Task: structure prediction
Amino acid sequence: MDRWLAMRIFVHVAETASFAKAARQMQLSAPVVTRTVAALEELVGGRLLIRTTRSVKTTEAGARYLEDCRRILGEIAEAEAAAAGHHARPAGTLAVTASFMFGQMHVLPIVTEYLDLYPEMRARTFFIDRPVNIVDEGMDVAIRIGHLPDSGFTAIQVGSVSQVICAAPDYLRQHGTPASPTDLKQHRIVTSTSAWASPEWRFADGQRVLIDAVLQTNTNEAAISTARKGWALTRVLAYQVAADLKEGRLQRVLREFEEPPLPIHVLYPEGRHSPAKVRAFIDLAVARLRGNPLFS
Result:
């Protein structure tokens, strides 16, 4: 029995839930498909599929075997493509995820540059302020800010960014500038729930302050806009207010109490076996993000 062909047949039957459909798709006779799956079940020593008059479903063992077959067949296809030189040029659709504001400001320009370099490529972005399961949600690459949990993925650090507390000059003239983290309890504060869900703000040397925000918004942009108008203090990532700080619309306070900057990583699952479309994007993203003075 051709084990590779048998696995392909089994995957087609499982995915179509039909021996007849799998046979048509693979241009094989129905008896060949049936005999091959039966021989595969005999080889592995257990039932892989439950057959009824209306449908075909995987058993518990069959579901596990299906995932293994997909992985093995994918690795075979990748090896063949690499040997044939298909990995020399990106092809297909690239899916990239990042946090909402970072994605819009710093990832999207890299994606569009990538598409200019490889016009035959297509791309899909998913910018959202929550952790995204790269594999389950079909992402090829993620750009993450913060310390990463152990995941088995490949991570390349491309820079870092500080958490900053800032306010408009008018606010500071009217209400004074906090001299220590505990002074924040005397100030009006606006927070973004998308960025800092915890009411506890942490500072250098283990200091912590429980913040009672007068206003909570669900976007960083809203919190920044409110602070820019002189209504309150806010805490965001430095890149989000870089232009405001440079042009004086906002001022950074309590800088000497800030925690060490948060790392920025480019994260992807395949490691050295990544297809060309992923490797090409990673090379570009790493170069652009490392070259950005905001993250050095």
Remarks:
- The two ends are 57 Å apart (CA to CA).
- The first strand starts at residue 49 and ends at 51.
- DSSP finds nine helices and 14 strands in the chain.
- The mean pLDDT is 90.
